[in-house]
Every structure is written in C-alpha cells, then in structure tokens.
Amino acid sequence: MAKKKFYAVSSGRRPGIYSTWPEAEAQVKGYGGARYKGFSSRAEAELWMDDPQWRQKNQQPIEKTVKRQSLTFEGGTEIYTDGGAINNPGPGGYGVVILENNGVLELTGGFLHTTNNRMELMACIKGIENLSSRTEPVALFSDSKYVVNGISKGWAKGWRRRGWYKSDGNPAVNSDLWKRLLDLIDGLDISFNWVKGHSGHPLNERCDQLAVQSARGTDKIVDEGYGG
C-alpha cells in the first residue's frame, strides 16, 4: 500500500491541507506567490502551516509555479542561481530558485552599484543560506564559470590559504563574498554545476528574470563590500 501523503498549501487559491496532489495542485498551479510542501503525516503538515520555513523577508512575488526540471541531479535539493549588473559595474540584482521536496522558494534582491560576478556569488550565498536542511545533498546550478570553477577547481580555497592572494601575487577579487560562500558550504554535501545561460532552461531563465527585475527596481541597497 502506498504511503499516505499530505500537501500543505500556505499560499494559494485556497490555503489548507490536502490529502491528494490533484487537489493541492489546483490551488497552486498558475497562482502567483504559491507556496506548498508535501508531508507523510497530517501533523507535520499542520506544523509547517503554522510556521512555513520558507517565508523570507526578501522574497519577491512568484509569477508562476515552477515545475521540477532537473538537469543531471536526482534526489536531495536543487538550487538555481543567476546574477548580473547593468553596464557592469552598475545597478545589480540576483535571483534564486530553490527546489526541496514539493516546495519551491524564489529569492531576489537588488544593489545600487555592483558587478556581475558579485551578484553571481550573492545568488549562491542567498540560496545556501535559505536551505531548510543541511543534511541533504545539494546540487547548485549556475551559468557563471567564475563561480563554478572557483569552487569545483579549488581556486577559492587556494586564495583563502594564501591570505586572499592569487598564485600570481595579485589580490583575489570579491574575497568578502568568497569567504562567506566557503564558510557556508563547509560540511555541506554540495556540488556546483555549470549550465549554459540564456539557452532556454526554465529555471535558469527564471533566475535571470528575477535578477533583472531587482537590478531595474527601486528597492535596492548599497553593496558595502564593493569598492569600485
């Protein structure tokens, strides 16, 4: 017999707890700002409804429900990220989509003056900071080779080991954000994966959309770590 499943919808057409996915899907599919998650017991679903773990102050409205579309990763958690700055450097923003179980979380934020690379790093930082669990394996997808290679090839750890200097003796750029990222992934089972940007992948495109919206928006803050 299949294990009983309950679906908690904290934001949808009719918030509540549903015993079948078609009932829950009807509340969230195409609904802007939908938030939902599946549980094995009604008690767990009720606890989550009382205090959903994914309500964040910097969350922007979700324009559509994002379906799970993994590239190569099976199981655990997926984080999709993107970031950029208009005219680089200039006004910037980041976008994040986190997929955990049956839940989707979108995050975004904007800065008055920053760079593409800093926003790519910030997107990764914000995504990892908002994980609901650090015990599950995580696959992070970014279209920034700067970020992916910096972690996967050990460049950032080398910069840190040398006091934030590169092998050629020049200072490592964005050391404040690299330090935050390295501290966050310490002890975490995480892989960094490159995905080609603007190639039609829906979650990468969604992150880009969020980043651009924040970069062009009026609610931006100072990137205090950027000295340019």
Low-confidence stretches at least 5 residues in length (pLDDT < 50)?
Answer: 52-73
Oligomer category: single chain
* Protein structure class: alpha/beta
Binned strand content: 25-35%
Enumerate how many helices there are, as a single number.
7
* Percent helix: 25-40%
Shape call: globular
Strand order of the largest sheet: 8-7-4-5-6-9
Gap from first CA to last CA:
61 Å
How would you describe this protein?
The protein has 228 residues and is of the alpha/beta class. The protein has helices spanning 21-28, 42-50, 116-129, 145-152, 155-161, 175-185, 202-216; strands at residues 6-11, 16-18, 35-39, 77-85, 90-100, 103-114, 138-142, 190-194, 220-221. It has a six-stranded mixed sheet. A three-stranded antiparallel sheet has the order 2-1-3, sandwiched between helices. A hairpin with a 4-residue loop joins strand 1 and strand 2 (16-18). Helix 3 runs parallel beside helix 6 (175-185) and helix 5 (155-161) crosses helix 6.
